[in-house]
Every structure is written in C-alpha cells, then in structure tokens.
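Lab notebook page, bench 4
Experiment: in silico fold of construct C2
Operator: M.H.
Input chain length: 301 residues
Purpose: comparison with the prior construct
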Amino acid sequence: MPDRDADPLIVAISSRTLFDMEDSHALFEREGIDAYADFQRAHEDDLLTPGVAFPLVRKLLALNEGAPVEAPRVEVILISRNSADSGLRIFNSIAHHGLAIKRAAFSNGAPPFPYIRPFGADLFLSANAEDVRNALAAGVAAATLLPSRAPQQRHDQLRIAFDGDAVIFDDEGERVSREGGLAAFAEHERSHAGEPLSGGPFRGFLDALHRLQEAFPTGQNAPIRTALVTARSVPAHERVIRTLREWGIRLDEALFLGGRAKGPFLEAFGADIFFDDSEHNIVSARDHVAAGHVPHGIANR
C-alpha cells in the first residue's frame, strides 16, 4: 500500500523544456516580451508539441498509477517566466496531453528560481542557464536542458543516468586531476579508498529518487532504473562503491568507462536523461539521449 505520509518526489520544470517553444523564444529575444505575449495570446488555442523533457515528465507522472490522488508519489511543477495570461497556451497544451500538472509559478519575465525551494523541489530542469545556476546556489539539484536530437527511449522503465564527480559527489577528484594529472588522481583515490566522498549537488535528488524506488519491487521489472556513468576506472572505482554503500543508496548499474565517450553507453542503457557537469560530455550525449548540464564544480569556473 502507498505511504500516505511519504514525501513525493518533486520535480520543477520550465515550460521551454516541457514543450518545444524555441520559435516563440526566438521571437522574444528579437522583439521583446510584449511581442512574445501577443504571439502566445494569438496562438493560445494552438497546441504546443513536446519538448526535450516531455517523455521524462510523462514517465515520472506515470509512477503515480495506483497511488491515492491525495498522496502522489511524484509531483511535477511548472516554473515559467511567462505571465499567467500568456501561459494559458501552456496549460491548454498540458490538458491536451493529459499531464497531471496542477501547480505552477508564472513570474512574468522575472527570475522564477526563488519559488523553487518553497515548492520543496528535489530537482529543477530549465533551458535558462542563469536560473539553473541560481537554483544550484540555493541548494537545489538543477540542470540546463537544451533541444536534443536524440530519439525517444523505448523502455517502459524510467531510466536516469548520472555522472559521479561534481554531480552525485563533490568535485574533489576533478580538482586533484586538474592540478596533478591522472596519475595523481589515481593515487589520491587509492589512498582515500576507505574515506567516503562528500555529496555533490545531486546528492539530495539521489536520496529522494532512492526513496521513490523503495515504493516499488526491485529487479529487472522495477519501474525505475538508475545508472552511474563515469569516466573513472580501476582503481578509482572502489571509493565510489564504498561511498554509495555508506549512503545506503542503490544504483542499479555502474559503468566505469576510463575516459571512453559516454554517448554510446548511455544509448545502450536507454537513459531518459543523463546529468553531467562537463559541457563536452553533454554535447556528446545529446546525440544519443536527453542530457542536462550541471554547472557545478571546477570544470565550470
């Protein structure tokens, strides 16, 4: 039976990642907010097509099947720089696609990130890099999503993949690697293998996702499957494994790639979304899966 007192996983998402609004956003950048608002009102009965995060949102909301309406397992909240007036087209499209999104914040051009924490969001996804950085600074896991050429994944499961350093963990390893090279990194991780890594910006989201996983049976047919996809290799794997064990976190798969390109492995895993702090890795991954850039750590300074 669902736990009616359990906190749901809360994901805040921008309208430009939920739907394909690149044309109207280009109009906003060319002609300003008034022209944009006029365009949205004139087209409020024209349905928006799915954006890069739409398949992810649909799978997240599907996890509420069988849960009481008053105690959902997952809640998705719309966070938008639109006004409520120009946002009517967005909610018309949400209703058409049958998405159970009930809460929203429309900031009418102002930065919307201050509303993310009061909603209790575990994760924020946006196409606006500034909003993402501000959310991270406020302690919320956040990533920038850009339009992707990747095909929609065919798995019924929700599949989420994470980079390790500067995403799940802090950027200690990356700092050592940049300062001393790969040999120094390998020696550092070998000598600190028994010392758990500190949590990174996605530690809280990983905890919330793990709690959600525990509401379902384990095994190949579980509705959620997770993976660590990292450039680490042996012997730097040991510290990662011991850290996750210390945290009591289950990741279903772990890929230690030793510097190999991540995109083909993410496609093989069938990730609905992948989170990484490296823009280089995100550019590569976007050809295969939806990918979110986490602008955190030494790689983004």
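Observations: Strands lie at 9-14, 74-80, 103-106, 123-126, 141-145, 158-162, 224-230, 253-256, 273-276, 291-293. The chain has eleven helices and ten strands.
Next step: discuss at group meeting.
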